[in-house]
Amino acid sequence: MTRSITTDLLEFVSSCETAQTLADLEMIWRRRVVELGFSFAAVGAHVDPLRPEQASYVFQNYPEPWIAHFSAQRLHLIDPVYRAAEAGIGEFVWTDPEFRQPLSWRQRRILGEAREFGLHYGRTHALAPVHHLRASGSLVAPGPDVPEEIFEAGKITNIVVHHRAAQLCAVAAPSFALLRRRERQCLELCASGLTDAEVARKLEIGIATVRRHIERARIRLGASTRTQAAARAIVSGQIKPIV
Prior knowledge:
The chain is α+β, with helices and mostly antiparallel strands.
């Protein structure tokens, strides 16, 4: 790595460690990725970037129209970049045939739509979960010939920022009531995409009983919807993340 990239690394790390809010940390991160020459970048939990659950975060400087579309269509639930990182691929390039080959037609369409906004020459690396929510960092270059050392510097940037963001999220993490066994089972199966009837058949209980358990879980977690209840159960580690 050249000296021009590394001379201010210690200063950057220090500034991240002293950041007291996620907003301050995001400003530091944004300046850094621009200085490194990336067109766009993102780092954080695999959640809706415009509506992150409490005690999670997403930093990104993607084009606003794309993010609005991504959020409105709830693409974070099937995003091929998120799914690849969650599948255990530590690092991958968006244009690599090995990454693209197993994708569904819908995931390929997402990549095609993103390319129209300049999100093409990207590289993603997995990061440690944030309160049981999977996370990753992505770096989008202006072209295919960016030096490897620039990507390495960007990766270090994301790792440092993610570590500090996770600490700040831990401070803000809410304390949720513990769910009972059936409440956890019903909520987790519902969150995975099963209907109430399918959950009932799987657990060999009545549909009304399923709805009662889910409603009790919602109230216990102080959530206004099933979706919010599932998110809070995931954040508190009571059910598995949706994959």
